[in-house]
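Dear colleague,

As promised, here are the two records you asked about, laid out in our usual form so they can be pasted straight into your sheet.

NAME FIELD: protein one
SEQUENCE, THEN STRUCTURE:
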Amino acid sequence: MTLRIYDSAQRQLREFTPLVPGKVGIYLCGATVQGSPHIGHMRSALAFDVLVRWLQRKAYEVTLVRNVTDIDDKILNKSAQANHPWWSWAYRYENEFTWAYQALGVLPPSYEPRATGHVPEMIKLIERITAAGHAYVGNPGNVYFDVSSLPDYGTLTRQSLADLKAVENESEPDKRSVHDFALWKASKPGEPATASWDTPWGKGRPGWHLECSAMSGKYLGETFDIHGGGIDLRFPHHENEQAQSHAAGFGFAQYWMHNAWVTIDGEKMSKSLGNSLTVANILQEHPAVLVRLALGTVHYRSTVAYSEKTLAEAGAIWERLAGFVQRSVELVGEVPRAQVLAVTEAEFPAEFSAAMNEDLNVSAALAVVHEYVKQGNTALANKDENTTKTMQLQVRAMLDVFGLDPLASPWRHTSDTTSGMQNALDTLVQDILQQRAQARAEKDWVRADALRDTLAKAGIVVEDGAQGARWKLGE
């Protein structure tokens, strides 16, 4: 089945055809490691994690490059305010991002290059752009991209130079035009000497946009398949990336994919609103799997409305999904992880594959998962072991596309712990139910009612039936 994705550049769904059959190269804008990661950062990581997982199920060999911006104005300013070495400051938060990715089950990228490790490639790229007549030298150490020299500047976001808002920058008085942007920035007075590199134009450091063109070219080639990132990066970052890459003669990205942001109480997450939620703080109060479920099962181009209600809804969904998997294991045993990973696109339910191939329609795909869980629960009730085993395999394989197989890392520990707690609780409750059954047999109704009340106070509902008493947690 053919995958169709929404190309942000062309603003339409396009059939995906990779440059090299069987292989896909993806460049994803990663973190600027100036501070702790919040759920807005994770939205992008999770959205493209699902893309990678689905491409792998379609038997593609995927190369994912996710960069780390470890040198820029914000890092230098914040580290200086904290009286901390800038490189140590950046490394601290890079580690926090790595921890957050792992906590939420994001697959590691094929390569995770740092900007500071690719200065030679950036210098060569500037020289190439300059030689082509698209860049000029300002004051010593400054090199600017001349946007007026490139006919297709603005085509990614469909803007013309005449329409662009002019923003004066007092720190860049040597620019020919307010629309030009820095490829290389001269060192500023008071900045650490370690935050600059020698170049043909003087000491300085890279402009924000330059690193992505240099690193995508190194790891994916001058032309590659997909460039991804948050929708807020389309302009100026992605527009400028494309401009400098085209100016160098690179084909650059053939498809552009942008994920929408996260809102809290109807407002876009931003530090200016004071509502940024760090991953570390959230995971102190909520299981990581619920955060992943809440953020990762909303269509990547749709806004995620994050709230306590969202997490509560995710909790109810997870209880149903993981609960079926656990009960199926109790009846037929655990389907080996290797078998779950071996399920190919053609072996998934047709409705699931069709949904995922239509621009990663995770909502429709998740509806298929729920239908198979329903069938699995029916098979469990009927003690139908063959169907139960098949449903376990299919449900876990589909959930794995979302990074949510309950028996895979990092959720397995959570599932095992939950299972252990459930078994312990069941043992205690069954003992009380046996005491109650004995009291009822002896017609000691006062004691029987007292035992039932004890369970009710603990939030446990007892249901009497022909097969004896059953229990469940109350709503």
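NAME FIELD: protein two
SEQUENCE, THEN STRUCTURE:
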Amino acid sequence: MDKNKEVVISTRVRFARNINGLPFPHKLTGQEEIYSVLMKNVNDCCTQLFSGKFIKMADADRLLEQSLAEKHLISTELIKKQYGGVFLSSDETVSIMINEEDHIREQCIMPGFDLDNAYAKLLRLDKLLATKLDIAYDKYLGYLTACPTNLGAAMRLSAMVSLPALTISRKMNGLIGGLQQIGFTIRGAYGEGTDPEGFEYQISNQAAVGKSEDTIKDLFRRSIAQVIKLELDEREVLRQKDEIGLQDQIMRSWGILTNCCKISSSEFMKLLGYVRLGVAMGYIDRDIDRIDNLAVATQPAMLCMFAKKILGAEERDRARAALVKKTI
């Protein structure tokens, strides 16, 4: 198994772009015609490069919106926007949000530690958008954004990582402090204000002012490589310290997930974190991609989408257990 993939679940590249002369979204209301033109231009560019579909938030039902947020394809902030929209590529690696915090939020998510492909894929679209739209750019400040911390390259890089060994060994505080010193932040899987579940964390760069895209990418690549090394080294420490105890915790988690009749989301994520560790360390013979996909597929709105109806909490817990047993 790819050692990087044992730790990095996915890599995301995001660009923030705005239209020159147009007020930022939080200042622009009641101008549906302007948004329609913006959405059409973005959709036209996207469809030149990707097969996919455009969704206006006003036309999307609550369940669809929540499921897209659970898959990290849109933000919860976009759901609140009357004139919001999103283009989704068919393979769901590319999503372009319209009228979130900025006029355009381009993002590409690739499985594993695949920064270069994610960046190249998004850059092609960004260059095409620049030929069709008057993007707000200042030769001294760089790309102009609604939030000052995004000025400059207006690029946010993030990696979804699984850090069970560092968490179990209580070494996360040191890692968090070290990342903050070099301009990175670490949060729960669903961003600011969320707690890590199943040992999953999101690491991303902060301010990009005064830094080039290449500089940001290089620092990000080296930083994530160091996080990967720290986690893999700590797994070996745990193995040497008490392999039977570690294996027992992993296999107990596996036993519950493969035999339970109902399970809550929080308990499931905790157990899944141990199972993923077991797969990575060779104790469980399963495909790690299938394990990672379960983390999203078992979210509340996703379960309702599979069932094609609204499920209560008890029904979701039963549906989650059934899906887990069927999948793994």
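A couple of things worth noting about protein two: The beta strands are 8-17, 52-56, 85-89, 94-98, 104-111, 137-138, 142-143, 155-162, 184-188, 200-205. The radius of gyration is 21 Å.

Best,
R.
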